[in-house]
Specification:
Chain lengths: 118, 113
């Protein structure tokens, strides 16, 4: 079964603090993709990153970094020096590449509401 | 370049009515996806269309249906509306291959009274 768990429902930090959002996934597929999306109050899901199951290299993009560990089925997201504009709901998602019945769909976690206070 | 556009932004209906939601994909994208984001239920996959055909369907009743037009835009129809259909409906598009990144629109907020 496919499943994405974001155990942190809400996180509050003060500006300039670092914050890590956790994501744990389950899949029986050997080929899969992991994603992070950001949903600001406007509602639109904004794509942040995609990782495939064969690439465990960590990635950094500005203040954002991602840590993918297959051994623990985790794909965590860290924001360094958080800013008020980072306040949003962040979703982790999984898609499977090789199973016909699940093709095309993203399985989302429940999301983590991040609030950054000035 | 225009992103995924959805209309209307808000839609208010009463129980038993039908709702039609529209989506225009990013230029060059042939796949369109629909998701429901209801309070307490998270984001759930509804439908995937590619090249005018329904390719996959989530666990929703048949009164949720849709279609994709030759220009790759899409409609989601919800018949016999129920109160629990109240949700944000998000449309996404991607290049033809399903593993490609899905880019989302701002959604249609459907309220069923």
């Amino acid at each position: 079964a496919q499943k994405v768990t974001q155990a942190q429902t809400e996180i509050s930090v003060v500006e300039k603090e670092d914050v890590t959002l956790d994501c744990v996934y389950e899949t029986r597929d050997t080929t899969y993709y992991l994603f992070w999306y950001k949903q600001p109050p406007s509602g639109e899901l904004v794509f942040l990153i995609r990782r495939n199951s064969f690439d465990e290299q960590n990635e950094i993009s500005g203040r954002y970094s991602w840590n993918f560990q297959k051994s623990t089925s985790s794909f965590n997201f860290t924001i360094t020096a958080s800013q008020v504009v980072d306040s949003a709901v962040y979703f982790c998602a999984l898609s499977e590449a090789s199973r016909g019945s699940t093709l095309g769909r993203l399985y989302f976690g429940r999301g983590t509401q991040l609030t950054v206070w000035p | 370049e225009a992103g995924v556009t959805q209309s209307p932004t808000h839609l208010i209906k009463t129980r038993g009515q039908q709702a039609t939601l529209r989506c225009s994909p990013i230029s060059g994208h042939t796949s369109v996806y629909w998701y429901q984001q209801a309070l307490g239920l998270g984001l759930q996959f509804l439908l995937w269309y590619d090249e005018g055909e329904e390719r996959n369907r989530g666990n929703f009743p048949p009164r949720f249906s849709g279609r994709q037009f030759p220009n790759y835009s899409s409609e989601l129809n919800v018949n016999a509306l129920e109160l629990e259909d109240s949700a944000l409906y998000l449309c996404a598009s991607s290049l033809r291959v399903a593993k490609n990144i899905q880019y989302f629109g701002a959604g249609t907020r459907l309220s069923v009274l």
